Amino acid sequence: MKVLVADDDRAIRQSLTTALELNGYQVTACKDGVEALAAFRSDRPDVLVLDVMMPGVDGLGVCRVLRAEGDRTPILMLTARVETADRVAGLDAGADDYVPKPYDIDEVLARLRALLRRAEQTPTGDDLVVGDVRLSPTSRRVWRADHEIELSKTEFDLLELLMINSGIVLEHHVIYERIWGYDFGPDSKNLAVYVGYLRRKLGPPEVIRTIRGVGYTMRSS
Question: What domains can you pick out in the chain, each with its CATH number?
Fold first, then answer.
């Protein structure tokens, strides 16, 4: 597996490269987001490890560029910012998971393995259809009836998860782990906020149902 590492701290960059290579990964190391984007396009990696805070184009900027191009390569963020709002900002930009600094290399390796497994299981090919809602996993486009709906990366991933499991009630913690890679806990409102975004964009009649105290499900009627 090929990993692209981008961090402006040379010591961190070198230690990550060494640890990853010892675990069988082929590593391309970059010192900023500009280098990372160029390296990504010349030799497509299987997964990216990006520092949030970098000069020029930072990790969030790299995420936004790749996701705007429709690329779904898994992205793991390294960040010294540990507040929930900062994590959500990174995930909204297109990151799949994050590890706070200072990190444990074993956790980084475990997160990378999880992201690569998830990428292998991502459905491709046929569109998902629930009632008059249609989602294309390959083009990352969504329609209701004949109207195309613009969704953010997180909104799309959440809708895709609900449609794959149509008719099944997904508990809050399951959705958090699958979409954000982290359970923000019972007091978090993040999931409810994104469900609200989806409901407004999809419009009536409502297809995402709340199962009070449990979670959410998607049904056509």
Answer: 2-121 (3.40.50.2300), 128-218 (1.10.10.10)
